[in-house]
Structure formats: structure tokens, C-alpha cells
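User: Teach me something about this protein's shape.
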Amino acid sequence: MTDAAAASYRPASMLAREPVQQSGRTALVVLFALVAIGGVVGGVVISLSAGDSEGAGLSVFYAMIPLPFLWFCFWWLDRYEPEPLRYKLAAFVWGGVVAVAIALVVEVWAQKAFDLSDEATASFVAPLAEEPAKCLFLLLTFVRWRRVIDGVLDGLIYAGIVGIGFAFVENIGYYASSYLGSPDIALAGSQGATTTFVVRGIFSPFAHPLFTSAFGIAIGLAVTRKSTIARILIGTVGLAASVGLHGLWNGSLSYGPSDGTGFLLAYLVLACLLAVIAAVAIVVRVRQVRVLERSLSYVAERGWIHPAEIPYLSRFGYRKAARRFARGNHGKDAAKVVTRYQRLATEMAFLHDSLMSGHSRPQGVERTYALLDSMYALRPDLRLPPALHSTRRHY
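Assistant: First, the predicted structure itself:
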């Protein structure tokens, strides 16, 4: 968006224009709802492979335990610019149903076609089947509706949620198998399932999200590149990294020394990598605060919002205080208006900053104007607290 275009903006009318809607969205929602139902049925069938109701219930219960913590981590990263809930649910369903189905078919076919051992299948075929199956969701989302993923943090969030969904369903199968027992497993029943849960549910719940995060980062970087060749190269490297990380993990279990030192070393390497990725994600999230304040300040200079609004649109503490003020003094409807206004302002500010930084965004200018119109339509009912001392000079 040029300065001339920015300066020329005036709200078109009190009837806000909505940003361009995704074509075929209803069909996709229905499709994913059906897939989700199929996934629930499939999960129940997998749990029943434990042999009895106790084993089935224990398998599902153990698989569900890490979910609230994992969801909280990605929700925290996603607080400033929340991704659409329908896409996050679709990512979970894709990971738990579509990716699992694709990977299972490929793995069973490859093992039978090439007469592979379980160790070879787990170490080589599984990473090559499972990671592309998971990453396909991010690729399709990027190709179909590019504005959904517009940076590294978005890529990490979607990759992580796809990984959570995949691990959830896969863990049901592992716990059921451990409960049933086998000649190669010393423990069976509840002891076997619990032992597997400790390894997978407590010590390595981030394994699948970590593997897929490499491609998520790559997609986040690719969206900022104008060259198609650069995007393809970055995506290819990211996918290779995802497959490599997964292969390292599985291979250390299948072919590592019998004393477990190989697995321990791989675990430490991946744990350090997870810590680095987490640190990067936190830094990017903190940077969002500065980007948001900078963009809102620029928008205020253009006269699109009042400078006194900036604290109530940027800092979590002030945002919450604004909603509490509206609810306490003007009722629930006023609080909903403030919440809606804050979300629109956040999306508009990040989009505006991206355009001003020279990045290409699909229908970026039109979407920015539509968001500003939506904000303008809310202003008659907007009830924000009095201006802070630091902003009163702008009155």
C-alpha cells in the first residue's frame, strides 16, 4: 500500500465490506465434518484392537491426556493474531485422519511389496510416508488460500496442530498394542499401556509436532519470497528436514545400540532442537507486539484510528482492561464490540505492516480497506476506557 493510497482512505459507509470470502468454504466445512466423524469411528475401532473395553478406554484416555497442554502451547503462540478456528480444527482432523490414512496405506504397501522388516519400515518408510502426508495440509492451505499462512509463526502453529492430531490417533494404536502385548513386549495389560504412555505421552509429546515444524518454518519463509523457484527450494529443504528428523528418531530405536545410548543421544539432540524452535517462536511472538504498535501508530498518523486507542489494541493487559471496562460499564454487548474491534484492528495492522514492508499479499489493499470499514462500522457502539496519560496529549 502506497502512502498516496493510505492518505486517500476514507470510510466508504456505515455498512462494512467484509473481506473476500473463500470460494467453496461450505463444501470444505461439510467435507471435513464428515472426515472428522470418520476419524472418531476409526479411533474407536483402533482402540478396540486392545481386546477388551478396559484396554480400549485406557488407550483413548492416555492419548487424550497430553492434548490440553499441547493445545495450550499453540494457543499461547497464536494469541496476538489468532488463526481461524476452522483452519486449526481442519489441521487437527487432517493430521489425525487424512495423514494417518495416507501413511498407513503407503507403509503397509511398501512393507509387503519390498518384504521389509518392521525396523526398516519404521526407520525409512514411515518418515517418508508420514511427513509428506502431514505436510500436505500446509502445502494445500498455502496454495489454495495463501493469506492464511503469512509467516513463520503461522507455519509453526499449523504444523504443530497437524502433528498433534497425527500423534493422538497414532498413540491410540500404540497404547492398544501395548495393552494387548506381544512376544517382543515384556509387559502387557495396563502396565504395558502405562509404560508406553510414559515414553510417548510424557517424555515425547512434542515429537510429531517437532518433525513437521521444519516444513512449517519452511512454508512460513516461502510466503515472503516472490520467486517461485525460491519457494520450491525452501519447501523441499523443509520437507527433507522433517523426514530426516523423523528418521533419526525412529532409526535410533530400531538400529541404535541395545543399551539405549543411541536413542538417548537422538532424544537429547531433538530436545535441544525443540528448545531452539520454542525460543525462536517466543521471540517472533514478542516481536509481534512491536510490529503491532508500530503499524497502529502509523495508521493513527494517517487518521484511520485515534492514537488513544493504540494501547487498548496492542498490549494484552490493556486489551483485557478495555473489555472489562466495556462489560462493567456498558454490558456484555459492549464488551463483544470491543473484542471484535480489537481483532479487526490486529488483523488490519499486521496486514498493513506487511504491505508497507513490501511483501505481496493476495488482495492486500482491498482487505485492509475492508477491515478498516468494518472497524468504522463498530465505532458508534465502541466503548473504550479513558485515554491513558501517555496518550492524552494526542487529544
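Now, about its shape. Residues 261-301 form the longest helix (41 residues). Residues 1-20 have pLDDT under 50 and may be disordered. If you'd like, I can walk through any region in more detail.
User: That's plenty for now, thanks!
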